[in-house]
Amino acid sequence: MIWSFFEGFAAFVGFRVGKAVVREAERHVGRATRAKNAAAKSAFLDELEACTRKLPGGTPATAIVVEASSVIEPHALKLACLACDDGRMAVDQHRAETVDALAVRIVDLECRSCGSPRRAFFRIERPS
Fold first, then answer.
1. Could you tell me the residue range of the domain that residue 121 belongs to?
2. How many structural domains does the chain have?
3. Residues 113 and 128 in one domain
4. Rounded-to-integer distance, Cα 84 and Cα 36, Å
5. Boundary (domain end) residue, out of 54, 70, 99
6. Same domain? 38 vs 97
């Protein structure tokens, strides 16, 4: 009877120690996985940004030409997210700057679904 008590107690202690070891191992695996996923996401966003620069509106030189500043944001909201192919973008910031001697409007967008950023350049040219 005493042996069974000690065997049960030893099994309980072994179980608790085993759970602690497994929990610690899961934490380390989780940390490594999170770091690996963060690096992969960063590389993906860098590649996506490089592809975005090749599209119309991706650089100040290839800025999308509009007639008035009032149509910039509605036009920018129609741009699709390149990461998830969802068309629901939100404007983070809209500002006017001079880049490479070109007066452009820069619109920073963020996808509502996946949170991926996108920058679009617009140039205002009034009809003559």
1. 57-128
2. 2
3. yes
4. 20
5. 54
6. no
Is the C-alpha dihedral spanning 33, 34, 38, 44 positive or negative?
A: positive
pLDDT reading at 25 higher than 70: no
- 39-58 CB burial, b ≥16 within 10 A, e <16: eeeeeeeeeeeeebeeeebb
pLDDT of 107 reads: 94
> Would you say the pTM of this structure is higher than 0.90?
no
Q: Which amino acid is at 47?
A: E
- In single-letter form, the type of residue at position 95 comes to R
Cα-trace Rg, the chain? 27
Instruction: Report the chain's terminal Cα–Cα distance, integer Å.
Output: 102
Give dist(CA 111, CA 120) in Å, integer: 13
User: Do the Cβ atoms of 116 and 110 come closer than 8 Å?
Assistant: yes
**95 contacts 105 by C-beta, under 8 angstroms:** yes
Q: For the chain, give the percent of residues with pLDDT over 70.
A: 76
Distance CA 103, CA 100 (A): 8
d(CA 78, CA 101): 27
For the residues 44-57, what does the mean pLDDT come to?
Answer: 86
